[in-house]
Design goal:
Elements lengths: L6 E2 L22 H25 L3 E8 L5 H8 L8 E5 L5 H4 L5 H4 L8 E5 L4 H8 L5 H20 L2 E9 L2 H13 L9 H7 L2 H15 L6 E5 L3 H18 L18
């Protein structure tokens, strides 16, 4: 599957208004066959993660961003549902605490990046400190504009130190967001997921889309590229993300470490 069409290369001029969130053309099968393929990819991802955890060489950072109800939780749950919890961590970044606000915006982020042998998944991330700050006008423009450079430098430092970074923007349409938010309202079991700010943020859809557009263009680098994932169809979203991760982690050519001695033929008495 040629997923490279979703990769944003440095210098690409994108327009999220023209990106079809319903697009699913590179997969010729139906939803049922896609779900079966995702299960196989889950198994492959589990194998790769086990080797990574044992080898203790590579650090994997996976970033999920997207509008409210874009499917970040669902993608994490469905793509990583077979991996061994050992060595895999999910970090959620909500509104910063008073202590976090008293420090630089990357302080709380740096504290959660992976060590060797770890795979860390960011559900929202340091990009919130540009997106929300910009749209909600929480800081002067020069402050959040400088953060593009700070983020690029930070991610370059991480990759120089051995971290592989994969960033996914889950792209949904305005109508799809409306349907998903309404579905939450209609289901009492999902009321806990509702934040009144979701409705206020929806009124600023265009501003957030423009902010995301700029973030992706300015911070998709060779070291830490963005992928724009059409996410109206959840099964397609999960299929593409799974394919990308399996392909990219396979390219790392990870191996189980060599045993300290040869145990072949050893019989325990």
């Amino acid at each position: 599957m040629k997923t490279s069409k979703y990769l944003v290369k440095p210098g690409d001029n994108i327009d999220l208004n023209k990106v079809d969130a319903d697009e699913h053309h590179i997969y010729k099968g139906d939803k049922e066959s896609a779900l079966a393929e995702i299960k196989l990819l889950n198994i492959e991802l589990d194998k790769l993660q086990k080797v990574q955890h044992a080898e203790k060489k590579h650090k994997i950072l996976i970033v999920f961003q997207g509008m409210d109800a874009s499917g970040k939780d669902g993608a994490i749950r469905n793509v990583f549902n077979s991996v061994n919890p050992s060595g895999v961590y999910v970090a959620h970044f909500g509104a910063p605490s008073h202590d976090e606000l008293s420090r630089d915006f990357l302080w709380r982020i740096h504290n959660r990046v992976p060590a060797k042998g770890e795979m860390v998944i960011f559900n929202r991330s340091h990009y919130e400190d540009v997106l929300i700050v910009r749209v909600q006008k929480l800081m002067p423009k020069p402050v959040w504009q400088n953060r593009y450079k700070h983020i690029n430098d930070f991610e370059q430092m991480l990759t120089d130190e051995g971290t592989s970074i994969y960033k996914f923007y889950l792209h949904i349409s305005n109508d799809e967001q409306r349907r998903r938010l309404q579905s939450r309202i209609n289901n009492p079991d999902k009321h806990w997921k509702i934040d009144p700010n979701d409705f206020k943020d929806r009124e600023k859809w265009g501003e957030y889309l423009e902010a995301y557009n700029d973030v992706i263009v300015k911070t998709s680098t060779a070291a830490a590229p963005w992928y724009i994932i059409p996410a109206n169809k959840k099964w397609y979203r999960d299929l593409i993300i799974s394919n990308i991760l399996v392909n990219e982690l396979t390219e790392l050519k990870m191996k189980y470490p060599t045993a300290k001695q040869n145990y072949t033929g050893l019989v325990i008495k």
